[in-house]
Specification:
The protein is an alpha/beta fold and 397 residues long. It folds into two domains: 129 residues, Alpha-Beta Complex (Aspartate Aminotransferase, domain 1), CATH 3.90.1150; 236 residues, Type I PLP-dependent aspartate aminotransferase-like (Major domain) (Aspartate Aminotransferase, domain 2, 3-Layer(aba) Sandwich). Helices cover 47% and strands 14% of the residues. The strands form four sheets. A seven-stranded mixed beta sheet has the order 2-10-9-8-7-3-4, sandwiched between helices. Strands 1-12 form a two-stranded parallel ribbon. The longest helix has 31 residues.
Length: 397
């Protein structure tokens, strides 16, 4: 049987990490993998997380299964963090929630849920979108189509083209995948006016919004970054949301996420919960517990919660400052090309806008590692390497 197997090409981003580790250049810089790094280039454990883990080490008294949907306390707290504690869908008990193995697990669970509700449903994803969106959706049996999202000439959301495509090409029952904030890979987000226009179109055409919010808190703030998602939830009868604690709590390896389904009635929410639980049971059966326990410990304790928010603010401000510093450093190299768009975008990612040959030179001649699309992780920059990166960019232009 196994003789028919063929090798699958390595994930291009993870392959970059391998090349980076093998590189002996002392000036090498990793701007590829999408994890937050501090000024020393380290992805440190947040102090609030360490405090919560210390408490759990003393207080946790069992390792029994947590159930298919995970911890109810965690699910309730994350629904409030994502939607806002006073959102009408929570008050109306129109929400089904499950703890999942990371944001990717949430994406898969929700994709399978959609496929149960409408087998082979069409999911419209932006061009570009996160590289794993399409494989996750396709592997769940869904059909993928794309709408235009990013204008590489203006370095902004191509909103007129996006709205025109969704208006013309979609049909009732189709799904529209949107990034909640800090768009990966472009860094270009919808503003609230654009969110409202998108919500109006989705409601009018009978589409299902599917929002992936993996970077809440790393753009403008926890509430600010979820404003568009909350507006959407106010406007439509049904919606699904995948959220992640990997970035804003730094819990990458703990695989902590949440799948949220908003329905038109509380009765439908109960039905959705039972279907989601059944899908989970047939997949990974139960979610891992530790990361969710850490998050709920932080969110349920006012002091730990404030410590976490303060740490997150420092991370967010650092990313924003790095954007400005990179633009200034490139300009200082005498580059006439305008890179100011980097300052106007949000989150960890931006496209540099250089071509494939220039990307290749940055990697192979300067040991500056970035994705072939020219996407960079701004959090990979620091005061020790930012001037070198700017000089390298200038050299390949």
């Amino acid at each position: 049987m196994f003789e028919s197997l063929r090798a699958v090409p390595a994930d291009p981003i993870l392959h970059l990490s391998v090349l980076y580790r093998q590189d002996t250049n002392p000036k090498k810089v990793d701007l590829g993998v999408g994890v937050y790094k501090d000024e020393t280039g380290h992805t440190a454990i947040m102090e609030a997380v360490s405090r919560a883990e210390e408490r759990l080490l003393v207080e946790e008294d069992t390792k029994a299964y947590v159930g298919m949907a995970g911890s109810k306390r965690f699910c309730d707290l994350l629904a409030q963090v994502t939607l806002g504690a006073d959102h009408k869908v929570l008050a109306g008990k129109r929400v089904a929630v499950a703890q999942t193995p990371g944001g990717s697990g949430a994406l898969r669970v929700l994709a399978e849920f959609i496929n149960v509700a409408k087998p082979g449903a069409t999911v419209w994803v932006g061009n570009p979108t996160w590289a794993n969106h399409i494989p996750v959706m396709q592997s769940a049996g869904l059909t993928i189509k794309q709408y235009p999202y990013y204008n590489s000439r203006t370095r902004t959301v191509d909103f007129e083209a996006m709205l025109a495509s969704l208006e013309t090409d979609t049909k009732a029952g189709d799904v529209v995948l949107l990034h909640g904030c800090c768009h990966n890979p472009s860094g270009a987000d919808l503003n609230l006016e654009q969110w409202q226009a998108t919500a109006d179109l989705i409601k009018a055409k009978g589409l299902l919004p599917y929002v992936d919010i993996a970077y809440q808190g790393l753009g403008e703030g926890m509430d600010e970054d979820a404003a568009g998602l909350r507006l959407m939830a106010n406007s439509v009868p049904e919606m699904v949301i995948a959220s992640s604690c990997s970035k804003n709590f730094g819990l990458y390896r703990e695989r902590t996420g949440t799948a949220i389904i908003i329905t038109s009635t509380s009765i439908n929410a109960s039905l959705a919960q039972s279907q989601m639980n059944s899908l989970i049971r047939a997949n990974y059966s139960m979610p891992p517990s530790h990361g969710a326990l850490v998050v709920e410990t932080i969110l349920a304790d006012p002091k730990l919660k404030q410590m976490w928010r303060d740490e997150l603010k420092i991370m967010r401000k650092r990313i924003t400052d790095l954007r400005s510093q990179l633009v200034d450093a490139i300009k200082a190299e005498g580059v006439e090309q305008d890179f100011s768009f980097i300052e106007r975008q949000r989150g960890m990612f931006s496209f540099l806008g250089v071509n494939a040959e220039q990307v290749d030179k940055l990697v192979n001649e300067h040991s500056v590692y970035l994705v072939g699309s020219s996407r960079i992780n701004l959090a990979g920059l620091n005061q020790h390497n930012i001037a070198y990166v700017a000089k390298s960019i200038a050299a390949v232009l």
